[in-house]
């Protein structure tokens, strides 16, 4: 294998790597050592301290610099005569179009998010360039090969969707720590420090009457001449005290639940304690705003400690104060960032205080940060193994060794003695809307939903299109592009605000809408069906797309919705789930001779239990390999050759 | 170990991996001393992994000078011979590895590893032997076993697109998670000498062919007094003859050791970089497991062949010895 023949297969071949992170660093190194001569690499990120434990091409002195560029320099040190072309850019930039992709013999993904993976998948399909896809989480990983006309595409199988929580669970009846984090991050933090014009469900109560709701809007504003400490305590008392009292007044909610207890700052912190202990001077030594820290000013060091209610309350008030004293300019524009120490401290403390109210076990800043930031668990070893597997597949692709293409799973616990388990790739899913252009079906209230809802919730969020064009018959309803004239732009802007059935070319039940993304060269037909009512909890989008493979994972809420108070928006709060790993494809019916559940469990755990357990059909012949079962209704298992 | 807190610097640097293996494992790693002998591509990969993980110290032994073959799969050494200045492989690797993590002490020990006594190995928690003869591996293994301290011993080698790891954790206690509960377990390992002396016919029928092929290669180098990996296509007839003899002596059907496989191992002795990455990664994970005492370690061989893509664990120990 490591022969002349193999090296000659690499000669003159051009590869594109997308991602220069955990997998990317390992991959670039292994490609260079293996004899690849012409490597292009795209990554929009800059280097951070928390990358250094595994992205071994980077050093402390590189923090803040482009990953793609530094990775190139580092690899040229041990392989100076190869060509590496870095792009410090987003792979979704229009410059990386189908023509750009066409110049490569193979594309290798080392990405960390679903959107970019889908985008690259589409460009590879359009450019007819083979794609080797990969992902890791902790000790688990996988490599898959996608070649148009020979194997399934990346989107042929359902992907775990971002986890969503019903609004009422977050606003009124949290039962897990993550609910408190979502509340602290997406509601409280956003309300206090984010864009004031954003819809926010923070003050939604089941028993809200219009008057109190109106009044509530002003509660969060700082009053004239209000001392910052007073302001902080007032907010504290409002969200942890008053709001809980209001919620408690709805007896119906608490019939089968433990009643939360309201917490007021004066109960936890005697007056004056904050000023006494808070030592802002510790933060004055530096002008670097990113290092402003409530923990530092309170002399708390260990992020692994679980703080008491009192400590959380002090952190909360101190962090609140620091935002106003040190970072006032940013207020109104802040969004939560896991690398923003003060924001993490504030969110941890707020989540913990709320957790205290609801009798949910508290967590350390370290853990809270992981949950709030959806931090991917990552180690160097898994990335190195996966990169090695990517290169072996890439070499097969370049040798057109089609019958030996494999997808490989890297497991934590052996299955049938295997830690690395190769599986034959699947055939394309004939009903995949991406590679087979099968029409989709959309149930929607055509008399109420606006074109904007359709664009945001379906075209962008579900179909992953960035430069969409929407047509009904020959009528153009909407498009995005740089070269549109003003009239068109105004026309499309007006269309966005129109209800579907009132568009110039009305979208009504029974018609077919065509959605295209020019950059991805993807066209989708969507059959429209009018439906009057949608279940607010189960179908928070107010529309239902089917024939579309992405698995839904709205958290099953065992709490009944409270009253009809509802929320100011019907979008549930979303938590992006890390998507570095894709689960083993699931099937409904399987012929299973032997079921190595460990493997299936590894993967269903990785996907946070959102997936069915998967079973594997094992061919016991020694020189054979494993095959994963798939729904025979969709796709019969077939060897590719 | 209790009560000690990782520094802020450690917490920031190791954040992502602490989320995988926990603070306790990170603390244990930061106290572990690792010795590696034989610096080729696979060991370079392992060293990178273990330095990034944050062990206390890593000591390298390899007095050979850099040759094109020795660095073909080693990213720690730049290809510019003028920059070597008479340095050994271990010294060149050490220079690079130091940069990977300022919190890990990387150093070089000079000398022939086979001449080192028990006192020498007593300083380490983990010993990895590569690119050395079977006799050397056996002797290091025995020296480690004689010490009262439990040293985790590994050998690792890659030929062509195949790789092999051997593990001897002697008597190893560990905890593993089962249904959210930690259960205490233990495993008894044979030494390398005991393991490879298990008669072939006593092994399970499905043992990977690679196990036998690697033993044939090892034996050939031993009887011909070759340096490790020093074989060429001219040796193929001799190797095939030896295979026949070994199969006969072990009453094993020759089809368990295909000529094609031996041919691959003979024709291309260079390491294949993707396999170095894979084997070096698995070895890194196993060493971390052994140090942490958490999770079931592999017992006692691991094989990977890029040709079929399988990464297989084989337990090669004599059933009656309880090991």
UniProtKB/TrEMBL annotation, chain A:
**Annotated pathway:** Protein modification; protein sumoylation
Q: Give a yes or no for keyword ATP-binding in this entry.
A: yes
Domain THIF-type NAD/FAD binding fold per the UniProt entry, residue ranges: 8-432
Q: What keywords were assigned to this record?
A: ATP-binding, Metal-binding, Nucleotide-binding, Nucleus, Transferase, Ubl conjugation pathway, Zinc
Is Zinc among this UniProt entry's keywords? yes
Ranges where the Ubiquitin/SUMO-activating enzyme ubiquitin-like domain occurs: 442-534
Residues of the region (Disordered) are 554-595
Q: Mind listing the GO molecular function terms for this protein?
A: ATP binding; metal ion binding; SUMO activating enzyme activity; transferase activity
State its location(s): Nucleus
Q: Do you know which Pfam families this protein is assigned to?
A: ThiF (PF00899), UAE_UbL (PF14732), UBA_E1_SCCH (PF10585)
InterPro entries (alphabetical): ThiF/MoeB/HesA, ThiF_NAD_FAD-bd, UAE_UbL_dom, Uba2, UBA_E1_SCCH
User: Where in the numbering of this chain does the Ubiquitin-activating enzyme SCCH domain appear?
Assistant: 329-369
Q: Which GO terms describe its cellular component?
A: cytoplasm; SUMO activating enzyme complex
* One of the GO biological process terms: protein sumoylation
Q: Which family does it belong to?
A: Belongs to the ubiquitin-activating E1 family.
Subunit structure of this entry? Answer: Heterodimer.
The name under which this protein is listed is SUMO-activating enzyme subunit
UniProtKB/TrEMBL annotation, chain B:
Keyword field: Acetylation, Ligase, Nucleus, Ubl conjugation pathway
Q: Which SUPFAM superfamilies match?
A: Activating enzymes of the ubiquitin-like proteins (SSF69572)
Which Gene Ontology cellular component terms are annotated? cytoplasm; SUMO activating enzyme complex
Task: Using the record's annotation, list all stretches that form the THIF-type NAD/FAD binding fold domain.
Answer: 14-310
User: What domain of life does the UniProt record list for this protein's source?
Assistant: Eukaryota
Q: In which pathway does it act?
A: Protein modification; protein sumoylation
Which terms does the record give in the GO molecular function aspect? SUMO activating enzyme activity
Annotated GO biological process:
protein sumoylation
Q: Which InterPro entries match?
A: ThiF/MoeB/HesA, ThiF_NAD_FAD-bd, Ubiquitin-activating_enz
Q: Where in the cell is it found?
A: Nucleus
Q: Which family does it belong to?
A: Belongs to the ubiquitin-activating E1 family.
Q: How does it assemble?
A: Heterodimer of SAE1A or SAE1B and SAE2. The complex binds SUMO proteins via SAE2.
Output this protein's name.
Ubiquitin-like 1-activating enzyme E1A
Q: Source organism lineage?
A: Eukaryota, Viridiplantae, Streptophyta, Embryophyta, Tracheophyta
